[in-house]
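Reopening this ticket.

The earlier resolution said the output was attached, but the attachment link was broken on my side. Pasting everything inline this time so it's all in one place.
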Amino acid sequence: MQNSEVFILAIESSCDDTAAAVLHNDKVLSNVVANQLIHNQYGGVVPELASRAHQQNIVPVIDAALRKANVQKEQLSAIAFTQGPGLMGSLLVGTSFSKSLSLALNVPLIAVNHMHAHILAHFIDEEGYDKPEFPFLALTISGGHTQIVKVNSFFDMEIIGETTDDAVGEAFDKSAKILGLPYPGGPLIDKYAKEGNPKAFAFTKPKVPGLDFSFSGLKTAILYFIQKNKQANPNFIEENLNDICASIQHTIIEILIDKLKLAVKETGITQIAIGGGVSANSGIRKRLTENQYGWKTFIPKFEYTTDNAAMIGIVGYQKYLSNRFETSAVVSKARIQF
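Inline output:
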């Protein structure tokens, strides 16, 4: 039975964002994220720097989340944290702090799978956003993951397709690097693509059987394409940037849509929920909301797509209702069973 006074403090530290959120049942009272800009100069996340920044950020971020929610720590019902997957050093900061706080407040400790959280972010009670009904298909697309998941219930999920190499977010960022764009390059490709012709340049889609994905071949094809054209015209990128970005984005979206079509055909499920940082991409959102395939598509609020603690909190709330708690012996896991 639902307790009307469940307050969850959620902590997310899987990569380079330190985040904390407070939920009252399935409503978000606060959702605070501290970004680590130091990684931009290195063209990617540096694990050692990330864990140090988490140590600096975690106390002020949690304090800010509690203050914004106007909730005292003594009111908390449980502490939820990201157990994995992610960078081990980063995960350890959040796990250790969560254990300590749980012990100090004598409240339950709840471990959350980061990928489950991206999927269940759709169940945050947010005005104007519908929630999918079970079963549904989840397309989880981020810098580290590309998965199609059959979601039967809150805790019964099955991966039916995933990338065999690079994740879709890597494909965007590495393509951007080839074009000389700064990190993170994915949002920049999206930005320039809006002004370009998606059919200007053709890139071959990889042939991968079943519902699995592959993006490494596409990245290589883009590299060779740019090298060849720059030899003929040193200003090729500058003169064609919008069209190149639009063509790359179009190809990646087509790969995702083709696999979703196949997943719908194989499962008979027409409810599609997307999540993960790459679901913020405007081209992907537009294509999925055009409703040309007869699917019902669910896209969470923008702030719940990238790494955040509110999505950890909604899983924490559901686990709280079913008494899925951990002891202080629980450990972080860089790789974790789905």
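Reporter confirms the inline version is readable. The first helix runs from residue 47 to 69. Residues 136-299 form a domain with the Nucleotidyltransferase; domain 5 fold (CATH 3.30.420.40).
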